[in-house]
Amino acid sequence: MTVEDMAARDGRRGGYRVRLDVFEGPLDLLLHLIKREEMDIYDIPIARITAQYLEYIEGLVVLDLDLASEFLLMAATLMDIKSRMLLPRPAPDRFLTEEDLTDPREELVVRLLEYKRYKEAAESLRARAEEAGRRHSRFGGPGGPLPLPGPEGGRAGSGALLRPAGASGPEGDAEGTGVTLADLVRGLQSVLRELEDGPAVEVGRETVTVEEKVAEMTSLLLEAGEGGLDFIGLLRRARTRLEAVVAFLALLELHRRGLVRLRQERPFGPITVWARPGLGEEKVMPA
Amino acid sequence: MTDPGRSTSRPPAEAGTPPPEKVKAALEALLLVSSEPLSPRRAGRILGLTETEARTCLELLAEDWRRRDGGLEIVEVGGGFRLVTRPEYDEYVARLEPSRVKPPLTQAAVETLAIIAYRQPVRRADIERVRGVRCEGVLGTLLERGLIEEVGRADGPGRPILYGTTRRFLEFFGLRDLSELPPLPEVDALRDDGEGGAEGGTL
User: Fold this and answer.
1) How near does any CA of chain B get to the CA of A190, in Å?
2) Are B48 and B91 in the same domain?
């Protein structure tokens, strides 16, 4: 089963049908949500949009680490704003700092509006390009051919965000373990379902980078040695959804670098992760 | 109608000069062969005309072709004039040579181009701040396609590269020059549909 199949099936269960790769980035996704929910961009209900945003990126299947980190960074920003909005207003007799007086949402709104301007300008440009593209000179037409592949427009060597598992996902494990991307995603989603959002104040400024998670997993896997570790167990160590997603990305990254081995004994069975030769050697002395 | 032979500030022609009644015909010949938009300055230098004379003649020639109502027309894009097929015959041209059909630009590419076009010269960091995503890959593609170029370096740490649009960009979007860019929507006017408006039959 491909990831697309899974997404479709989730959709039928009342999940989210819109694939993230139709969005150009976190700002684009936010604008979409604001429009769909008919929110006032100058008075965004931050708790609501944060919840919606997190729902969207919940099942995020990411092969593009740059893009993933951008979506996650925005999630962290939203949660930060939300937590600041929850803080009690300072007592009126207290000296007010500038920060007290600024709406925590202001910076985000300015960014959204600025992005929207260019997004709309891009639309008129696109119309002009279509018009110009219908005139052809002897020399390949104005501007000549411009094959820009895929929906990502050549974003750093990656293709779509979602890809059919097995086809061109993280290269199928040469050892024929039968673990597909879909299996991994299913695991991630089960963990995400378990993890509720913590109170906003708690998660406000907490960010875990993929590199930090890679380091953490490396030491855990080296410790585990021959026995390996349970994939779900690794993800469950996360305390927040965000952290679980980052952990998942870290695992994909390790697999991409050929530093871990994944094995599943039977369909839908537990997935085990092992260290492969070379894991941890970037930091430790060469073996 | 026009007599380009009377100008006083005519530059020396590179070789002989066509008789005045043949100037338009000569321009037509140049347009067929020119692989790039033919600027009035260059046409003038070749034919021994001033830039203004050459422009006037090119515009008259374009008018001739418009009236002729054939399969071709002369448009002004990217700082010069160009002989092109009329848009209404695009469908048939595409059947003859399918490779002529350009795949539509990706959203990432158009957004990035828009930011560069309106803000040039601009640093990558500025583009990324507006879009909220990294743009390295897109910039690479746009550079490769000749739609943008490095136009210098900013002062400050690392002396970051500054990007600007190229003449090819103008051609690609059917613009004479940057002043023909559709106006950037004002923040207050963001409820506009963003389509049309600047579109017109001027080309």
Assistant:
1) 28
2) yes
DSSP-derived 3-state class of residue A162:
coil
At A122, list the tokens: 């891009």
Number of domains in chain B: 2
B139 and B159 in a single domain? The answer is: yes
Binary contact (B173, A138; C-beta < 8 A):
no
Contact B167, B132 (CB under 8 A): no
Residue B179, classified by CB atoms within 10 Å of its CB into exposed (0-12), middle (13-18) or buried (19+), is exposed
Residue in A134, A140, A157 nearest the CB of B87? A134
Task: Tell me how far apart the alpha carbons of residues B171 and B178 are, in angstroms, rounded to a whole number.
Answer: 11
Report DSSP state, residue A197: P
How confident is the model at residue B189, as a pLDDT? 57
Residue B128: which domain range? Answer: 107-187
A230 has which bridge partners?
A: A272
Gyration radius from chain B CA atoms = 20
- The fold for domain A170-287 equals Arc Repressor Mutant, subunit A (1.10.10)
Q: Which of A66, A141, A150 sits opposite B134 (nearest CB)?
A: A66
Q: ipTM score here?
A: 0.78
How far does A119 lie from chain B, in Å, by closest CA?
6
The per-residue pLDDT for range B110-141, each reduced to its tens digit, is: 999 999 999 999 999 999 999 998 888 899 99
Could you tell me if B71 and B140 lie in one domain? no
| Strand stretches in chain B, DSSP E | 72-77, 80-85, 122-123, 148-153, 161-165
